[in-house]
Amino acid sequence: MIYKNELDGISADMLKGFFVDWPNPPNPETHLKLLKNSSKVIIAMDRMSNQVVGFITAISDGVLSAYIPLLEVLPAYKNKGIGKELVHRMLKELDDIYMIDLCCDDDLVPYYDKIGMMQTNGMILRNYNRQSGS
Hints:
The chain is an alpha+beta fold. It has a single domain (2-118), classed as Aminopeptidase (3-Layer(aba) Sandwich). 21% of the residues lie in helices and 24% in strands. It has 3 helices and 5 strands. The chain has helices at residues 28-37, 82-93, 109-114; strands at 2-4, 40-46, 51-60, 65-73, 99-101. It has a 5-stranded mixed sheet, with helices on one face. The longest helix has 12 residues, at 82-93.
Protein backbone atom coordinates (compact mmCIF):
# COMPACT_ATOMS: atom_id res chain seq x y z
CA MET A 1 0.00 0.00 0.00
CA ILE A 2 1.22 3.49 -0.86
CA TYR A 3 0.00 6.52 1.11
CA LYS A 4 0.20 9.96 -0.48
CA ASN A 5 -0.80 13.41 0.77
CA GLU A 6 -0.88 14.95 -2.68
CA LEU A 7 -2.87 14.27 -5.82
CA ASP A 8 -0.20 14.48 -8.53
CA GLY A 9 -0.99 11.84 -11.13
CA ILE A 10 -4.43 11.02 -9.69
CA SER A 11 -7.25 10.96 -12.23
CA ALA A 12 -11.00 10.46 -11.89
CA ASP A 13 -10.57 6.97 -13.40
CA MET A 14 -8.60 6.00 -10.30
CA LEU A 15 -11.52 6.91 -7.98
CA LYS A 16 -14.19 4.38 -8.92
CA GLY A 17 -16.28 2.47 -6.38
CA PHE A 18 -16.42 4.97 -3.52
CA PHE A 19 -19.44 6.40 -1.66
CA VAL A 20 -20.92 2.95 -1.17
CA ASP A 21 -24.58 2.96 -0.10
CA TRP A 22 -25.00 6.66 -0.88
CA PRO A 23 -28.31 7.05 -2.73
CA ASN A 24 -26.94 9.89 -4.87
CA PRO A 25 -23.13 9.56 -4.84
CA PRO A 26 -20.67 11.99 -6.39
CA ASN A 27 -19.24 10.76 -9.68
CA PRO A 28 -15.47 10.21 -9.93
CA GLU A 29 -14.92 13.67 -11.51
CA THR A 30 -16.71 15.37 -8.61
CA HIS A 31 -14.82 13.15 -6.18
CA LEU A 32 -11.52 14.35 -7.62
CA LYS A 33 -12.71 17.96 -7.37
CA LEU A 34 -13.63 17.58 -3.68
CA LEU A 35 -10.24 16.01 -2.97
CA LYS A 36 -8.47 18.90 -4.70
CA ASN A 37 -10.53 21.48 -2.81
CA SER A 38 -9.84 19.97 0.63
CA SER A 39 -7.32 21.62 2.94
CA LYS A 40 -5.59 18.27 3.40
CA VAL A 41 -6.00 14.91 1.76
CA ILE A 42 -4.36 11.53 2.16
CA ILE A 43 -4.99 8.68 -0.23
CA ALA A 44 -4.18 4.99 -0.05
CA MET A 45 -3.20 3.36 -3.32
CA ASP A 46 -2.87 -0.31 -4.19
CA ARG A 47 0.59 -0.50 -5.75
CA MET A 48 -0.40 -3.49 -7.92
CA SER A 49 -3.52 -1.97 -9.52
CA ASN A 50 -2.46 1.69 -9.21
CA GLN A 51 -6.00 2.45 -7.98
CA VAL A 52 -7.01 4.63 -5.04
CA VAL A 53 -8.51 2.28 -2.44
CA GLY A 54 -9.02 4.72 0.43
CA PHE A 55 -8.98 8.41 1.26
CA ILE A 56 -9.45 10.91 4.08
CA THR A 57 -10.00 14.65 3.82
CA ALA A 58 -9.77 17.61 6.19
CA ILE A 59 -10.99 21.17 5.99
CA SER A 60 -9.14 23.63 8.21
CA ASP A 61 -8.56 27.30 8.96
CA GLY A 62 -4.91 26.35 9.52
CA VAL A 63 -4.88 28.02 12.93
CA LEU A 64 -7.23 26.50 15.51
CA SER A 65 -9.75 24.19 13.90
CA ALA A 66 -10.08 21.35 11.45
CA TYR A 67 -12.93 19.09 10.43
CA ILE A 68 -12.57 15.62 8.94
CA PRO A 69 -15.61 15.19 6.70
CA LEU A 70 -14.73 12.05 4.73
CA LEU A 71 -12.96 8.76 5.34
CA GLU A 72 -13.65 5.84 3.07
CA VAL A 73 -12.02 2.58 2.12
CA LEU A 74 -13.27 0.45 -0.76
CA PRO A 75 -15.21 -2.61 0.49
CA ALA A 76 -12.65 -5.13 -0.84
CA TYR A 77 -9.92 -3.39 1.20
CA LYS A 78 -11.74 -2.98 4.52
CA ASN A 79 -10.46 -4.59 7.73
CA LYS A 80 -6.84 -4.39 6.57
CA GLY A 81 -5.83 -1.38 8.69
CA ILE A 82 -6.04 1.11 5.81
CA GLY A 83 -8.68 3.33 7.44
CA LYS A 84 -6.79 3.34 10.72
CA GLU A 85 -3.57 4.31 8.92
CA LEU A 86 -5.34 7.09 7.03
CA VAL A 87 -6.74 8.51 10.30
CA HIS A 88 -3.36 8.33 12.04
CA ARG A 89 -1.64 10.05 9.15
CA MET A 90 -4.28 12.80 9.01
CA LEU A 91 -4.10 13.41 12.75
CA LYS A 92 -0.33 13.74 12.39
CA GLU A 93 -0.85 16.26 9.56
CA LEU A 94 -3.16 18.22 11.87
CA ASP A 95 -0.94 17.89 14.96
CA ASP A 96 -0.54 21.66 15.36
CA ILE A 97 -4.31 22.33 15.34
CA TYR A 98 -6.21 22.88 18.61
CA MET A 99 -9.52 21.20 17.73
CA ILE A 100 -10.11 18.41 15.27
CA ASP A 101 -13.75 17.44 14.83
CA LEU A 102 -15.59 14.79 12.89
CA CYS A 103 -19.09 13.37 12.83
CA CYS A 104 -19.76 9.65 12.57
CA ASP A 105 -22.54 7.13 12.94
CA ASP A 106 -23.04 5.58 16.39
CA ASP A 107 -21.51 2.26 15.33
CA LEU A 108 -18.21 4.03 14.53
CA VAL A 109 -17.83 5.75 17.92
CA PRO A 110 -15.76 2.85 19.37
CA TYR A 111 -13.46 3.00 16.31
CA TYR A 112 -12.60 6.66 16.90
CA ASP A 113 -12.57 6.23 20.68
CA LYS A 114 -9.71 3.71 20.30
CA ILE A 115 -7.55 6.34 18.61
CA GLY A 116 -8.11 8.89 21.38
CA MET A 117 -11.03 10.93 20.12
CA MET A 118 -13.85 11.89 22.51
CA GLN A 119 -17.56 11.54 21.87
CA THR A 120 -19.53 14.78 21.96
CA ASN A 121 -22.83 16.16 20.80
CA GLY A 122 -23.21 17.70 17.39
CA MET A 123 -25.78 19.06 15.04
CA ILE A 124 -25.97 18.63 11.29
CA LEU A 125 -28.04 19.79 8.36
CA ARG A 126 -28.16 17.71 5.18
CA ASN A 127 -29.31 18.93 1.79
CA TYR A 128 -29.75 15.49 0.22
CA ASN A 129 -30.75 16.80 -3.18
CA ARG A 130 -27.12 18.11 -3.41
CA GLN A 131 -25.51 14.86 -2.23
CA SER A 132 -23.91 14.13 -5.62
CA GLY A 133 -22.09 17.48 -5.55
CA SER A 134 -23.65 18.60 -8.80
